[in-house]
Design goal:
The chain is an alpha/beta fold. The chain is built from 5 helices and 7 strands; from the N terminus they run ααβββαβαβββα. Strand 2 and strand 3 form a beta hairpin. The C terminus is likely disordered. The strands form 2 sheets. The protein has a 5-stranded mixed beta sheet, with helices on both faces. It has a two-stranded antiparallel sheet with strand order 5-6.
């Protein structure tokens, strides 16, 4: 009974649907993990390979008067997670004039990160309050509850809550 070795006898491919699969993708290809995470939550990836200024993707939503609102996304893989990541995202959100920001983590957020996100306040739209900065882990995204970011109507969403590309 021979032992098969990944990369020699076989290659793994496909779209992760579990926390373990997402972690494996991160180990194999951090950039593809970033793209997977953005697309998993229904976002559009940022195609800039460098100088992305901390923005890995965006989700657009409909506002009144046919305007678009946006949530910027940042994906953090293997780094130690710190409140500074939330502060950087808040700065990017203000610089980009985005209504919302989402942080996707492999690791669990620290209490300090959650406090920083809460300090960013709320975005009020159509009688609903949304946390301006929201944090999801891949466990949140792939677990039994399959959480997504809380935001107003997404532009071009399908029934499975994954966005389709639209051109304006």
């Amino acid at each position: 009974n021979a032992t098969l070795k990944e990369g020699i006898d076989f290659d793994l491919c496909g779209y992760p649907t579990s926390e373990e699969g997402a972690q494996l993708l991160f180990k194999q290809n951090p950039k593809q993990f970033e793209h997977w995470a953005v697309e998993w939550v229904g976002g559009f990836i940022n195609h800039k390979q460098s100088h992305d200024r901390g923005i890995d993707g965006r989700i657009y939503f409909e506002k009144q008067k046919k305007e678009l609102g946006k949530m910027i996304l940042s994906v953090k893989g293997g780094q130690n997670v710190t409140p500074a990541m939330v502060r950087e995202l808040r700065g990017a959100m203000e610089r980009e004039k985005a209504e919302l920001a989402g942080l996707i983590l492999i690791k669990e957020a620290t209490k300090g990160m959650i406090n920083e996100a809460n300090e960013a306040g709320k975005y009020h739209y159509d009688k609903t309050d949304y946390n301006k900065i929201q944090i999801l882990t891949i466990r949140d995204m792939t677990g039994a509850d399959k959480k997504l970011f809380h935001l107003p109507n997404r532009i071009g969403h399908k029934h499975d809550d994954k966005q389709v590309e639209m051109y304006f």
